[in-house]
Amino acid sequence: MVEVNGHPHEPVPEAGLSIAEAARRTGVSVHTLRYYERAGLVVTPVDRTYSGRRRYRALDLKWIVVCTKLRATGMPIKGIRRYAELVAAGQGNEAERLEVLESHRDQLLADFAELQEHLQLINRKIDVYRSRLAAGDAGELWAPTRAARTPDDR
After folding, report:
1. CA pair distance 5, 24, nearest whole angstrom
2. What's the pTM?
3. pLDDT tens digits, 112-124
């Protein structure tokens, strides 16, 4: 179950919420809510009042949180849009939804592996600096001379 901001038992009124209240409860800006709608990321059309003002229902809020979390994982808008289209289409495309999610997960794992490599480099550099500081010869790190240095000294 996706939770939204605010009191967990705070019901969404039958008439729905204004865009400002929906933004407060989902933790995104009014601009973002409008963008999600324009970009085709919503799974159901957002209700409107007789004067044309948006009214968000509980399902809308939950879906906005899903979109926000997918975006926070780095999923491209195109991927979120595709996932939203599949969800909006209803039953019968669950395998395709799974494929979208698995593909994104695989990309995240590849990105994570690359970040781990970068982290290893940073850790090696930290070890070099600590050992040089402990040995009292840290002044030799990145000295502006053309003398040959080993990769660890830089």
Report:
1. 7
2. 0.75
3. 999 999 999 999 9
Assigned token pair, 117: 């490599």
CB-based contacts of 28, cutoff 8 Å, min separation 6: 64, 68
Cβ atoms within 10 Å, residue 29? 11
Give the residues across from 48 on adjacent strands.
54
Whether the CB-CB separation of 132 and 138 falls below 8 Å is answered with yes
Rounded distance, CA 10 to CA 59, Å?
A: 14
Query: DSSP secondary-structure letter at 40?
Result: T
Residue-wise burial string across 81-102, b where 16 or more C-beta atoms lie within 10 A, e elsewhere: bbbbbbbeeeeeeeeeeeebee
φ/ψ of 132, rounded to 5, equals -70, -40
Count Cα atoms within 13 angstroms, Cβ side, for 135. 11
